[in-house]
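Design request, tokens follow.
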């Protein structure tokens, strides 16, 4: 299984306004410099009143399909 480490900071308001749209994607850069895109809904379990802040590891299979995410 492959993985990528990302650092995310999204305010609660921004998440609710921009990322709750069905099929919405987040575009960001991983710590190793790769440009990545993933479904915004995978971040929802980490949404707090203050937003989503922290480092996360996203695991995906060899075909690039999302498998899991965890706080790093």
């Amino acid at each position: 299984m492959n993985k990528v480490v990302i650092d995310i900071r999204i305010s609660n308001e921004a998440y609710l306004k921009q990322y709750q749209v069905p099929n919405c994607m987040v575009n960001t850069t991983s710590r190793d410099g790769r440009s990545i895109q993933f479904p915004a809904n995978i971040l929802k379990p980490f949404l707090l009143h203050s937003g989503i802040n922290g480092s996360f590891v996203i695991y995906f299979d060899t075909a690039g399909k999302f498998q899991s995410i965890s706080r790093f």
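Comment from the thread starter after seeing the answer: thanks! Residues 23 and 39 are 7 Å apart (CA to CA).
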